Fold this protein.
Amino acid sequence: MTARLVLITLSFLMVCCHAPQSINKSNKGLLGNQCMVVSAHELASEAGKQILSQGGNAFDAAVTVHFVLAVVYPQAGNIGGGGFAIFRESNGTSGSLDFREKAPLQATKNMYLNDDGNVIPGKSLMGHLAVGVPGSVDGLFTLHKKYGSLPWSQLLQPAVDLAENGHTINESLAKELNRFHDDFLEVNKRQTAYTKDGVWKKGDTLINTNLAKTLTAIQAQGRDGFYMGWVAQKLINESTNGHGLITMTDLNLYKSKWRKPLTGFYKKHQIITMAPPSAGGVTLLQMLQGSEQFDFQKSGHNTAATIHQMIEIERRAYADRATYLGDPDFVKIPLDSLLSRAYNSQKFSSINTSQATPSSSIKKGQVEVIESMETTHFSILDTQGNAVAITTTLNSYFGSKVIVEGAGFFLNNEMDDFSAQSGVPNQFGLISTEVNSIQPEKRMLSSMTPTIVEKDGQVKMIIGTPGGSTIITSVYQTILNIIDHNMTMQEAVNAPKFHSQWLPDKVYFEKEKFAKSLLDSLTKLGHQTQLRAAIGKLECILVYDDGTIEGAADVTRNESAAAGF
Ligand code: DON
């Protein structure tokens, strides 16, 4: 296609399909000038703010927020799950900690297949066999040991109090507890703190004394309060009685890992993001490199032309996710190639600006191997300028639905993030291959993308979201909303999102947020569009050039909150 024809096509799309979005600068989130916490629950954000106002740093506040979320947001907040932390100290040094779950020692490659070699639906999703060895407590303890400033015990007190004395549940927790009531009974075969006669209602009090005891053990003994002693024994009893695979050796062996964050640039902004075993950072950086070939500022926010180009970028990056990414401690990942400018300019040069490329015709890129449906995110910036972004998860809502008897916490179902069989999609429709097959002690591939963006040597954004496979595209679109479309963080968070992940060959759009004429234009370009519920729950921070801090909670998609001053 000639350059002139491309230009005509783009101009046509811009004129016909631009659903103009007025960028209202007054639409900002919570403003402050010293510190900010944004999380999926107001009690967690408030508790984090209290720690900051008591002189704690962002790492201290992260510990408190994480453990409070485990009490007040049990859908995803956890001690029985895992996650990733990206951070940047006020002196400019950045780092990351991987506290992703691991496959138990007794796990086997074909553990979710029947005798005919087919995946048994649900086996990696619900019940004891779905559980990976939890990493959260080790992760938060390790992070605090190196970077925290207030005593560990003080940081856990708000969570202990909330579990012991109870908290008033909000509408979304009431709804989700009712939705999963039967699953809780089916898996646990007993009443627990999370079930009751009759339905849960907003305003009910949820008390979990077993969880309070567990948190008290962690408060007193740190990591060992979870991985050793009576809590560990309860976890092992639960696993053994439910025919799960986790043993005391698994718990003893679990260690979170410091990993070098991935970094890259987009229009003079430095992006600091998560390395494998999260696919998030690689895929995000690839998509940002692909975006440099286009002028989205000119083609406009969420116009057909822009969305078309972004879908084509997303589709191509996700093909590499499926093909090359897994746990770097087990498989060789051609990171240098995947992130090289030469590779990506070649990869994205096949984008046709006036026609969708069928996913079936996109093969994995030719790389050179160089030797050598619930999660939660929170963002914190402290008064000294330390920034922490943590995305943590049980995987599905309430994970495997297994509640450790006598200890009161949910166990994850993270084993579903492995490829149970090459090419067979997981719960997010993601496929992968041998690189992400199950092996003892291996970490399952993730999409979690906690990210910090720097400009001129200063923290500019702290970003992240849940959403399974849509995490990476939501983070990508939010970054472009700020850099290319000059939005406030609240506008960037609120903005309608869409998602393509290569396979299935569909593009998902948040329902009721995109004009029909726009979707029709994309269909004409060859995209298969599909409407779906909310994409992402972004909890983000933006720092303006004058030092104003904006905390933007994704209040239109979830009952989250910013707290700061
Ligand atoms: O690690 C991952 O990519 C998934 N376990 C995340 C799950 C998730 O975000 C579900 N939330 N909506």
